[in-house]
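Morning. Coffee machine broken again, so started the prediction first thing and wrote up yesterday's gels while waiting. Chain of 155 residues, entered below exactly as on the submission form.
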Amino acid sequence: GPNTISVGQHLHTSTSAYFCPTNFDIHKQDLTFSNSFACSFPLAMVAMLSLCEGEWMWSTCTIRVSTSGDSNCVIREVGELGWKVEVKYMVENGGLLAQEMTAVCQPLQVPEVTQDENMATINKLLQNLNDMSLDGQKLQLSSNVDDQVICFERC
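Came back before lunch.
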């Protein structure tokens, strides 16, 4: 069956309150790359991931792509207003397989500030990620839902 992780299981705080407008689930799924570096061999995937490593910026969030060993990739995203998302992937059969997703929602603030809608956008993108490519100095992530594409600038 699917591996389901909900937001509520990952709020680690004893003194702060967090606002999560909705819970989300992640289901294990195969993710593939489609650019000139990609092919069906895992080593090509690892080479592609190493080119994507580092910090990238989009709107109100910064992401860090990192790899470890020959088969693991982690994408960490942090919003300017305190929210965080981390997804761990495994390189498998020339693509990426989502293994674990952790999210911490934006802390409530006094005075109250508008909730950053980018967290929901990023969650949706990473849950449905199906393409990761480099376009010059831009990292492009896209999902198979609503043809969502976000381009990140290198920091």
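The radius of gyration is 16 Å. Going to sketch it on the whiteboard this afternoon.
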